[in-house]
Amino acid sequence: MAAVEQNGNGPLAIEVRALRHRFGRQQVLNGVDLDFPRGQITTIVGPSGCGKTVLLKHLNLLLRADSGKIVIDGVDVTRLGNRGLDEVRKEFGMLFQAGALFDSMSVFDNVAFPLVENTRLGREEIAPKVREMLANVGLEGMEAKYPSELSGGMQKRAALARALIRNPKLLMLDEPTTGLDPTRTGSIHALVRHTQQRFGLTVVMVSHDVPAVFEISDHVAFMHEGRMRLSGTPAEVTAANDEVFNRFLAGRAAGEEQGASAL
Amino acid sequence: MVERLGALVIDNVTALGNFVLFLGTAVWCAVTPPYKPRLVIRQVRIIGAESIVLVGLIGAFTGMVLGLQGYNTLRRFGSEGALGTVVALVLVRELGPVLAALMVTARAGSAMAAELGSMQATEQVDALAVMAINPIQYLVSPRVIAGVISFPLLTSIFDVIGIWGGYLIGVGLMGAPGGSYLNGIAQNMSGHDIMSGLYKALVFGLVVMWVCCYKGYHAQRMATGVSRATTEAVVLSSVLILAWDYFLTSILL
To answer: Is this complex's ipTM strictly greater than 0.85?
Structure first.
């Protein structure tokens, strides 16, 4: 790892150490080391297939590592059993790439779902919380709609409301702006920043929306071939002038120009 | 060559093991709290209540064709009076459970595999897990319980409608004696006949839900994966229904 020293030694929310994961013959994670500082936005960027989504699946405990450890608030979660994992997960909110709203339920029921299933709150206590959360993400009056009736950006907002309804300590976002136009991308980024500041969350984001995502990130890690090649503040990562990273940035820009000229 | 053969054997044994473990997990989740009675009721509605019309329709036609064929065959031996017994025994012991199970597989089993498959493809299953909800407990166990409840009930409906369908054609149309049709059933049908049909339905309910949920749950995360899972679910369920039918008959006879 071409190390760019991190400044500020606040308490860590998550430490990942020497994490490895193999699918068949493919070594997808090849010794990942990364710290996610508490109360800040850390963004993992990298080309498709570099392992960033797999890394996120380890952080939200859907996959088990072959070796290495993940320490969340001092607990090594790679050693926990199913019940222990569920306890840790109750502190998480997760926004999936396509939203992953339950399409058999209305927006209201989707957002209320974590409260209905995991708490003893009654319907009359849940309803105002859901309405308030929907207002936070700019979806007032959409309670009765079904996910299929919402636009892509609105689905992401509804999914974000569901992720936040239990006041998580950690919010994970898997490519929150994929498939959105630049205006909506900007508004989702602003919403993430606003939400992070309002609730004081630790945010882990996976994105290939560079360099737009740098504006809202406190820390950026560039992932390449299953490990972290660069990490630090956006300014430090940009200043590192790393060859692979520059090629990635240039490739993104070229791809966007191609996409634009195709239109 | 040897290496490839070995890999093939290991893959298949692993898949079989996963298949059995899947049912084990689903049953374990069904008997341990938190219980989800509302989800079970919902699935009984989808698998059971919404299949009643279809099962009744198939039951009526099956009974009617049995009445027709049975009457024509029995008349050759001059024993039209046994028509009721023949129709009822064939329906209750054999055709009721098997045909009802096949119809529910086609209607509800395929839909279930497709639903679970697309939930997997759109990360809805992962979303449940991240919200600290066991996806097997939430999605699979209620369906398995609902299958075990619904199949015997649907089979009973199939049997009753089929017997009346046979009566309609055999007695109403062809002119077999109505009194001996019903009387024959009452005298010759034992509780064991009825129970063996219902045991079969119970086992089929378990097998169909097990296969359809497994195939849907493990669908590859893309559109073709979902369609393949649905096809495999229906084919494998149908084969297993008929295979189990043979073994159960030989045990219960």
So the answer is: no
